[in-house]
Write a structure and sequence with these properties.
Length: 231
Amino acid sequence: MLTHLICDYCSHRTPAAESRCGHCGAPLSGVARSLEATRSLESDVGGVVRGAVALSGAAETVATEVATASAEGTSLVRQWQAVAAALAALVAIGALVVHWVSGAAPALAPPGPAGVGALPANLRSASCRTVGAVDQCVIAPDDPLLAGGLVAGRELPFSRQVLDPSRSAEQLRNWRGQQPSVVVDGAVFAAVGPAATVWFADIRTGLCIETGTFVDRAAARTFLVRSGLAG
């Protein structure tokens, strides 16, 4: 801190508190410079303060934006978590519905496997192919079932299918209406048709079999017994 000022005119030392030289009365330029410096310092300080205030405001704005972005990000994450949870719930419900339907629905007996299972062992070796809902089968000419000339050395074709109760009952009415030679009539129906064919129906399973023609009705009856269809 300055204690004295030197006069620019007479070089006399005057206490710093004085505004004029005590020797010649000239104004002391140091006072003016000090005042100017003070004003400059005040201006600089004011600028620094204003800058600090502006910086503080900017920092506050940035902090607010960061907090907002963070909140929005958190909200977005929560929304995606909610969507994922909803999808998982839908998948679980779908699985339960499928399980319930598959468990509650009655199993429909397909023509092939159910027919084979219900057939006597002697007929299960027949060669078959499925056409629609019907299995078209053939017994070879040299099969022991046809021994004795039952079909005059030819192969024997037959069809098998599994019908629902209403269609099975309709099929039986149709066969009975043609006045066949009935061999068995009960839970199992077996008969020889007018054209020397074999008709068979298992009312319990819906299995129905109809063969091609034999040489005569006696041969057809022999086949019924030999194959096990007549019990």
